[in-house]
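Q: Could you fold this chain for me?
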Amino acid sequence: MANLLTLLSAAAEHAAAGAEHVGAHAEPVAFGFIGPGLWVSLAMSVLILVALFLGVPKMLTSGLDSGIAEIKKQLDEAKALRAEAEALRKEYADKIANAEKDAAAMLEHAKHEAEAIVAKAEADTTAVIARREKMAEDKIAAAERGAIAELRAKAADAAAIAAKGLISKNHGAAADKALVDQAIGAI
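A: Sure. Below is the predicted structure, expressed as structure tokens.
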């Protein structure tokens, strides 16, 4: 650790001594008149002339022009895609509007059909009720006629039995003979 501190202090002293001697250095000059600034200017001029001779500006402009053309091409494609997307959006918006109209029309049609079915069902129900009332009335009338016919038959049977009893009680063989003779004489 002590060695490190010694080295650092020595480096700091050397740097301070070097800063004092900076102003004392002489500027290098070639051929007695070409200084460092002129060398840099000369090198840059040669670099620019070589770049112009090799066509670097044409390459740069052609590269930029091709980049610009590619960007324009991409922008045109983007515009075309946007126009296509807008057309699709409009088409689907129209389809949705038409679907809503169709749904509303179908709903209205279904309501009318339902009303017609209900009206027909009511009319059919009224007709069925009227038919069933008529059938019930017909059955009642037939039952009444059957009951009256049965009652008449029983009354006729009862009258025949009563007449038979009266005749057998009141008429004997002699009365029957007189009646038979009278009936034969009338002929």
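A (continued): The mean pLDDT is 85.
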